[in-house]
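We modelled the chain as a single entity of 260 amino acids. Its sequence is:
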Amino acid sequence: MQAPNPIAFTILGFDVRWYGILIGIGFMLGILISYKRAPKLGIESDHVLDFCIFMIPLSIIGARAYYVIFEWSNYAGDIKKILDIRSGGLAIHGGLIVGIIVCIAVCKYHKIEVLNMLDLIFPQVALGQAIGRWGNFFNSEAHGGPTDLPWGIIVDGEKVHPTFLYESIWCFLLFFFLLYMTKRRKFTGQIALLYGMLYSLERFFVEALRTDSLMIGPFKQAQVLSGTLIVFCALVYIYLNKKAVKDNTDINTDKSEESK
């Protein structure tokens, strides 16, 4: 399968690219679903809008800055190239880092529990990633190495792994799984930690197939960060789960003693 034209349409000589359209759709759906789901987690819907007003522009800046930093040799001294995000070059990890910082600031201002807000938004983050990854397909980027598999895509005359597709499918499934788990949440922060572990697990293995990875010396940056996040999130998950079980046991014990 050959990637289609990256230009969706042109208005007054300005090319509108599929990359931006798909990222925009991902943001809009994420905001709408978060706004609708917020009361179920005890969060005012308007606070979600406050978060998104700052998160959208700042997370895009963060995603771009993260990418440019790790590809500095290709951008040094060229401001126009640095600012040209329409052609691709947004690193999800940079966007997530800035998004979490914004979340902490907004939650502190509105006196919202940070982990509860993160539990609310991370399922929609997965959905946004699932949609946004198709922008890589239109840009013929973020693909893997050569393959003979029937679902390979043609890039520069060569059939390669559609790593964007692997991640998109995983993130769609992750979105629905996290929604399912939200209804069965045992402790605050569980959904955010599940996202951290499960997305990082997928990214670690899919990144091994990619040919355009950001690097830290001889290592792929995304694999290093993903491996670190898997361990960190797993340890915090175990700690909070044990604490929730203990607190529940203590509550049940107190009720039992009161009934005597």
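As a brief sanity check on the tokenised model: The mean pLDDT is 92. Residues 221-258 form the longest helix (38 residues).
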